[in-house]
Amino acid sequence: QVHVVESGGGLVQAGGSLRLSCATSGTTISINVMAWYRQAPGKQREFVAHITSGGRINYAGSVKDRFTISRDNAKNTVYLQMDSLKFEDTAVYYCNVVLITTMAYWGQGTQVTVSS
How far apart are CA 4 and CA 48, in angstroms? Predict the structure, then answer.
């Protein structure tokens, strides 16, 4: 059974930084895409960033130049370095992992709260 576990959320002041991690276990199938999404209270879940197995990266416009996604393929882990955090970045951040078989899995989410 595939497990996707996020960590690293917390409370930070505006302008501060946090680093999220997402570890995947329970699969011998290669991972294609690793991505971060977020969901703020009362809003729909939205895309934040993704990175492919080949290293191709894409960011949502709202986080570009502030967030950095990276991955460690040997550890099946993806990271999200979040700098210059804003109040509007407050949300539950979810990790999404897509295997080369196209099966997709979500983590349980980690709360990020930015105080203004």
Answer: 17
Residue 107 tokens read as: 């983590």
Q: In whole numbers, what is the pLDDT of the chain averaged over residues? A: 96
Distance CA 33, CA 77 (A): 11
pLDDT tens track for 40-61? 999 999 999 999 999 999 999 9
Yes or no: say if 115 and 18 are a contact pair by the CB < 8 Å rule.
no
Q: Please give the distance of CA 11 from its chain centroid, rounded to a whole number.
A: 17
pLDDT digits (tens, 9 = 90+) for 17-41: 999 999 999 888 889 999 999 999 9
DSSP 44-62: --EEEEEEETT--EEE-TT
Spatial distance between the Cα atoms of 116 and 113, rounded to a whole number of angstroms: 10
* Closest to 82 measured CA to CA, from 96, 99, 97, 68: 68
Length of the chain: 116
Residue 92: alpha-carbon gap to chain centroid: 10
